[in-house]
Structure prediction request, 292 residues.
Amino acid sequence: MKPIRKAVFPVAGLGTRMLPAAKTVAKEMLPVVDRPLIAWVLEEARAAGIEHFILVTGRGKTAMEDYFDHQIELELTLKEKGKTELLEQIVSALPKEGEVSYVRQMAPHGLGHAVWCARDVVGEEPFAVLLPDVIVDAEPSCLAQAVKAYEHVGGNIVVVEQVPESETHKYGIVTPKSRNGRLIQMSGMVEKPPQGSAPSNLSVLGRYILQPEIFPILSAQERGAGNEIQLTDAMARLMQQQDFHAYDYEGRSYDCGDRLGWLRANLALSLKRPDLQAAVRSMVAEEMARAG
Ligand code: G1P
Prediction:
């Protein structure tokens, strides 16, 4: 079984749910507590043993390339001012040279198209996909749980979580066949089923482990929901050729591509930080009292 060494991050999305903030700031660069969204998701991948990070970017997204590089002026200033701890924190979080690749998705044809743009960098090996809108608070990291499941059953894995029935039309939804602990055998998958027609309430979270055979399927560039090239449709086809499991992970997710989800992530994750929690608690209590 080949190990999962590479991960694809589709970061070309326009971020329309986060407008107007996302008009000039890439939505993946919006801060959650004290670091950009993309840094949280990259950390999750690193904690799962990923060695090569492939960002599928688009126009207006160059801030991410700068973020994952040295900022010499800043580093020199921090050094001069003796802020060594902060300097160490910033430098140690950087990926090593050659660990990050950037591929450009030149037109917004959908998630399946974004993943397909990374085909040459991924090559002939299984790989992970992490959607950067979602922060998952989990221990071990969500992707690490998926990798462990993959090491057990091989093939392809799609991480799922339960959502209320009223929400199923917003996600990819799987059709479960049988369940063994957290692993679920599936018979199908559908992207954003119209309300009332979802095959289950198990939604695709945005963490995948895929075999490279997904690429020839994506090459056909067939369009699905929203007239976009959907990863979900390609996965449903791959399922007819290869093993495919859903994995019901343990943890909590925050959809930071949505303003309420983003606010909640800031609140929940700062309440977990020992250096911030007491201050955040009293701040929230004060604001609640003030708002009446
Ligand atoms: C994408 C996927 C969908 C998945 C969702 C998770 O949709 O196409 O299957 O459930 O992410 O956030 P999007 O949110 O990009 O429309």
